[in-house]
Structures are given as C-alpha cells and as structure tokens.
Specification:
CATH superfamily of the largest domain: Type I PLP-dependent aspartate aminotransferase-like (Major domain)
Helix content: 40-55%
Distance between the termini: 49 Å
Largest sheet: 7 strands, mixed
Number of helices: 11
Number of domains: 2
Structural class: alpha/beta
C-alpha cells in the first residue's frame, strides 16, 4: 500500500478527486460489498469516500437531522458518536448496556426509547470500546423495530473483519434494512491504515448526495494518496489482513487471561481489539484507576466513563500491540491491583 502511494506520487497523482471520491476506489468498494454481502450499491451515487469514518459519521448526522430530532445510541460507545449528534442539532438518547447482556443492546429497550422525535438508530458491532458482537437475531429484531417505526439505521462497521467467534453480520444485508440504512466503513482497522484517514459511506442515493454536498464545502475530497493506498488494500490486501486478524485473536486470549488473573473480571471480546475489564473491586473510579496506573506502572488504559456513564467502573485496554508488551502490561497491572486487595 505504501509502495502504491509512492508510485502514484512519482507519477504526479496529487490532484483533487471527485467530491464523491476516486472512481476506481468507489468501483472497487461496490464490487467488494457485492462479493462479500451481495449488496448492490451504485458506485456513481451510492458510495462516498470520506476522511475516515469519523467524517462520515459527522456528515450523516448533519445530512439527516433537523434540530431536536433524536438518535438512539447504545452505550458504552465510541467517544465521537454523541458529540456528532449534538453538533448536528440532534439529541442523543443513550441506552446503557451491561456485562449481563455482554454489552449488547436489548431490542425492547430500543423500542421503549422511541418517541415521535426519534429519527435514527446508531449501532456499531463489533464495538469500540467493549469488543461486543451482537447476535444476528438481535440485529434482525432491531431492523424490524426500525422498519416498524420508519427510522433510519446508521451502522458503523469499521471492525467488521475483526469478528473472531462468528461470521460478521452486515446490517444492510438483513431483510428490510437496505433501504433505510447508511452503512459506514473504512480502512483504518482491517488494513492497519489509521493515519491514511480513508473511510466511506454507502446508502440511499439521496442521503449520500446530501452528505456529499456538506463534504464538498467542508473537505472537498479525501486525499488522493490515501485513496490510492486504499484501492491497493481492497484489491490486494485481504490475505495479509487475515494474518493480522489471526494475531489479534491470539492476543485477545492473552489479555483477557491476564486481566482475570490480575483480579479484574473481563469478558472475552467477540470482536475489535479491545478488552473492557471491571475495576470495581479496587474501589477506585475509572479516572483515578487510569491515572494512577499510568503514573505508578506506566501502563495506559482509557477510563470507561469516556464512552458513556455506564462505562464507569471499567477501563478500555487495547491489544493492538505485541504479545510481549501485553504480557508485560499484565504483570504491571497485577502488581498495581494487589495494592487494593
């Protein structure tokens, strides 16, 4: 991917692209989604290349929401979801999840949260920060509720390839979902391309056009260099990506074993590359635990309350690093936790 980018630079490919994104990349994404999920998205008007999925999330909120309209959002969730809703004038409606449901949202809680102002449901599995993976039957029930109440579904599936115990369920591929779903994905996770900042949105042409209009006046287009690297990734990087995913599956077992042995109860994450252990037995809140662990043992975790109030009492641990570093971190965490036993 780096070489493809370098070669394109040597050939002078440093211009703008279409506001929608590089045509070849949109064509490749369209073909990929059809081959993987049998989803038919017209690359000309149903796919938009964005500056990461973060921009795509901002665009879809601004394109969909009128002031005061509500978006139902299960928590813990990625830190930018609620701010993106608020920036667009919307109202985030949080639904807490717990370890009892393995941090998966219960469809009936979504139904109970719907009001006349509800415009959309925002879901993301596999989940950041918990690593939760929603069962297919759960997602089918959520789609049925959205159809019943004529709601949009915004689905962030950036971790789709990182699903370890069961095949990933692609939301717009479920019955009744395609026509009401805005599907967000990108290259940061499955292809280790975080700094390239290339994401995309796929969905109904009118919504994608509305997102493009905002995108063209704020960002114009995603950088062509990143788009060319992403084209190489989607065309030729699948097998190499799978090797990386297999390593993640091994690392998650190491980190979960280490956390549980250290006295921090932790569920086995079904996807992504995060563990979300409970730190309640230490008697510390999430902020104090994270700060003291950083200064006393030089181990970085993220306080769980950064991802919503229901994340309090947990911390997020990333295993996107070597097993050697994970094992060393587990030794330090165990030493730290012993201070409170």
């Amino acid at each position: 991917m780096r070489e493809a980018c370098i070669q394109s630079l040597e050939r002078g490919r440093t211009s703008y692209t279409s506001n929608y994104g590089l045509q070849e990349l949109r064509d490749a994404i369209s073909a990929y989604l059809f081959n993987q999920e049998k989803l038919e998205y017209n690359p000309d008007d149903q796919i938009l290349i964005t500056v990461g999925v973060s921009e795509a999330m901002d665009l879809v909120m601004r394109a969909l929401l009128n002031p005061g309209e509500e978006v139902i959002c299960p928590e813990p969730c990625y830190v930018s979801y609620k701010p993106c809703i608020l920036f667009a004038g919307g109202v985030p409606v949080s639904i807490p999840t717990t370890t009892e449901t393995e941090f998966c949202v219960e469809p009936e809680k979504i139904r109970a949260a719907i009001t006349p102002k509800t415009k959309a449901l925002l879901i993301s599995y596999p989940s950041n920060p918990t690593g939760a993976v929603a069962p297919r039957k759960t997602l089918e029930k959520i789609v049925a509720i959205a159809k019943e109440h004529d709601l949009y579904i915004i689905t962030d599936e950036i971790y789709d390839r990182l699903s370890y115990d069961a095949p990933h369920t692609c939301v717009p591929a479920l019955s009744g979902a395609y026509e009401r779903t805005i599907y967000l994905n990108g290259f940061s996770k499955a292809y280790a391309m975080t700094g390239w900042r290339i994401g995309y949105a796929a969905g109904p042409a009118d919504i994608i056009e509305a997102m493009m209009k905002i995108h063209q006046y704020t960002m114009l287009c995603a950088p062509i260099m990143g788009q060319i690297a992403a084209l190489e990734a989607i065309n030729n990087g699948y097998d190499d990506s799978q090797q990386m995913i297999d390593q993640y599956a091994q690392r998650r077992r190491v980190i979960v074993k280490g956390l549980n042995e250290a006295g921090l109860p932790c569920l086995m994450p079904g996807g992504a590359f995060y563990a979300f252990p409970s730190i309640k037995e230490t008697g510390l809140n999430s902020n104090d635990f994270s700060e003291r662990l950083l200064f006393e043992e030089k181990v970085v975790v993220v306080p769980g309350n950064a991802f919503g109030d229901c994340g309090e009492g947990h911390v997020r641990c990333s295993y996107a690093t070597s097993i050697e570093k994970i094992e060393q971190a587990m030794q330090r965490i165990a030493r730290f936790v012993k201070k409170f036993s």
